[in-house]
Amino acid sequence: MIDAARQVIEGSQAAHDGPAGESAPAPVSSLGADVQHDPVDLLGDISDSLLDAYQLAKHDGDPLTIALIEKVLFHVGRRLARGMSPAEAGIPCH
Q1: Pairwise pLDDT comparison (35 vs 39), residue with the higher score
Q2: Is 84 exposed, middle or buried (0-12, 13-18, 19+ CB in 10 A)?
Q3: Which residues touch 52 (CB under 8 Å, ≥6 apart)?
Q4: How far apart are the C-alpha atoms of 57 and 9, rounded to whole Å?
Q5: Residue 38 to residue 27: CA distance in whole angstroms
Q6: Are the CB atoms for 12 and 75 separated by under 8 Å?
Q7: What is the pLDDT of residue 57?
Q8: Do residues 58 and 69 touch, judged by C-beta distance below 8 A?
Q9: Long-range contacts made by residues 4-13, C-beta under 8 angstroms, separation at least 24?
Q10: What percent of the chain is modeled with pLDDT above 90?
Q11: Mean pLDDT along residues 28-46
Q12: What's the rounded Cα separation, in Å, for the pair 13 and 21?
């Protein structure tokens, strides 16, 4: 799972670091090329996978991996918070 996450991150960095005139390639979907995804849904799926990886890292007792996943979860959580209202996240508002 960590290798898959590393490949996604490296691909994202390569797309981001490309020449300014080029557009980034469209993300590859396992559901089909014409399927459009909501970024919040994708981030939710990523966060679920990261939480699984975090639990496995805690079980293995690897402090470096735990710290790395905690940092990534923080950033993914910030992105999710930007895309959702508190009510959509299930936080009661008065």
Answers
A1: 39
A2: middle
A3: 1
A4: 19
A5: 12
A6: no
A7: 92
A8: no
A9: 5/49, 5/50, 5/53
A10: 21
A11: 64
A12: 16
Q: What is the 3-state secondary structure (H, E, C) of the chain?
A: CHHHHHHHHHHHHHHHCCCCCCCCCCCCCCCCCCCCCCHHHHHHHHHHHHHHHHHHHHHHCCHHHHHHHHHHHHHHHHHHHHHCCCCCCCCCCC
pLDDT band at 65 (very low <50, low <70, confident <90, very high): very high
56 CB burial (10 A radius; 0-12, 13-18, 19+): middle
Q: Which residue has the higher pLDDT, 43 or 26?
A: 43
Contacts of 46 by beta carbon, 8 Å cutoff, 6+ apart:
76
